[in-house]
Amino acid sequence: MDHHHHHHHKAGVRGRLRVTAARRRAWQQQSACCKRPARRDPVDTVRKFMRREIGGGHRRPPRPAAPSTSAFSCPEKFRNFQLQEEYDTYDDPFVQLPLAWNRRRIIEIVAARDLIFALAECGLCGAFNRTTNKRICHLNISPDEVIRSLFYNKNNDSLITVSVYESDRYSSLKCRTTPIEYIRRGQLHDGFPLFETESLKYPGFVEFDDVNGKVLTFSAHDSTYKVFDLKNYNFLYSICDKDIQEIKISPGIMLVIYQKASNHVPLKILSIEDGTTLKTFTQLLHRNRKVDFIEQFNEKLLVKQDKENLQIIDVRNSGLIEVNKTEFMTPSAFIFLYENNLFLTFCNRTVAAWNFRGELVTSFDDHELWHPNCNTNNIYITADQDLIISYCKVSGGGTNDADDEGQEGSRMGSINMSNIFTGKCVAKISALDPTLMIAPRRKGDTSRSTIRSSVSDALEDITALFYDEDRNEIYTGNSRGLVHVWSN
C-alpha cells in the first residue's frame, strides 16, 4: 500500500518514501493489470522518514554538516548485534489457514511499543509480542480480508490497516483503526472502520501523512480529494477538480499538479490546514518531453523531464538552479530529509544525498542495495535522519564484486548502517562476520522463541526491514514469511 495502497502511506504506506509510491503499491500488489502506466515511484518519503511532526513555521536550525556527536553515528550502538528471535507469520497451531494464505514474502514490518506487525504479500498480517515472544493473533478479521498496508498512528497509539476484500472482488480499499492496547489483548473486533463515506475504488487511495498529522483520500468516481485530521479522523475540507493530476504533501503545504498543457503545467500551493490557496503559478515545460517528476520540498520545486536537466526552482522568487542531466539521473525513488535539508535519490542499487543547490553531498561507500528498484520497506532512516539502514549486497573483502554472484548465485546479503553525512558504513550485520551468531538463551528464560534458521538463512532473501530506535533492535522479514530480531 505504501506505494500503492500505500500512499505516503498511501493507502497505508509505510511512510518512508514519497507518497505516490505508496498509493501505487496497494493496487499493484493486487494485480498487474492495476498498474498505472510507467509512473515513477517517488518513494514514500515522508512517511517513515518524516515521522516526526514539524511544527507550524518554526523549524529547528539546520545542523552542522557532519554531526559527529549523534548517538546514531556511534558504531557502539550496533556492536555485537546477534540473532535473538525468530517469528513465523504462518505457523498457527490453532488455526488451519485458508489456502490463499500460503507462504509468501514479508512486505512490511511495523513496530509499536512492544508489538511487531509483519505483513505478507498474500495479505496475511501477524502481530507478535516482543516481551513474551508469542504471536498474539492475525490482524485479518475475516478469511477474505487481504491487508495491503499498515500505518502506526502515534497520535492515538493505534494501528491502521488498509485492506481489500474478496467479497467485493478486491475492488475498494477499506481502512480500520485498532488501538494497540486492544491488539495486545487480542480484541481485534474493538477496532472501528474509517472513511466509510469515501468510495476508495481504483485508482482511489488513502494516504497517511505523519508530518502534518493529516490523511488525504481520493475518491476517483467524483474526482474528490478530502483531508482528515489524523488525531481524531475528523473531516477538514475537500477539493473537487477533475483536472488535478496529483497532489503531493510537504510540511505545512500541498502541491497540486494539474493536467499538463502543451508547454506548461499549472500548479497551486495550498495550506494543509484549511486548503486555502497560497500561490498559483505555471511551470514551463519542453513541449515533447515526458515529465519524469515534479516534487515539492518546502519552497523548492524539483522538475525533471526526459532527457533534460533537473530544474530546482525557488517558488518565492522563481530563482532557478539546473543540474546537468549527465550528473542527475532520474531516480526510481526519493526520500526527503526535512531535518537536514537534503534529499536521497535511489537509482538502480545506489543511494546518493543531494542538497537544494543541486550539489551531490554524499555518495555512499559499501552501501549497494540488494534490491535494484528501491522499495522503502527494506530501507530505514532514523528520526534524526543521520543514518540509513538497508539490506545490501555483501561487499567481498577485497575481492572483485562482480564475482560475488558467481558464488552459486549467493542469496545472502548484509544489513548495512551508513552515516548520511559522510557516506561511511558505520556498522553491519553480515554472515561473513565470525562473531555474528544466534544469541545464547539466558538461564531461566522461557519466553525465547525457537530459532530454526541459521544466521546465514536469516540473512537470505530479506524483503522487509524495520529499526526500532527505542529498543535499538532491527527486525527483518524474508521470502519465507519469517521475522528475525537482531540486537545486542
From TrEMBL:
Q: Give one Pfam family, short name only.
A: DUF7899
Gene3D superfamilies for the chain? YVTN repeat-like/Quinoprotein amine dehydrogenase
Ranges where the record places region Disordered: 52-72
Checking SUPFAM superfamilies in the record gives: Tricorn protease domain 2 (SSF69322)
InterPro entries in UniProt: DUF7899, WD40/YVTN_repeat-like_dom_sf
According to UniProt, the name of this protein is Transducin/WD40 repeat-like superfamily protein
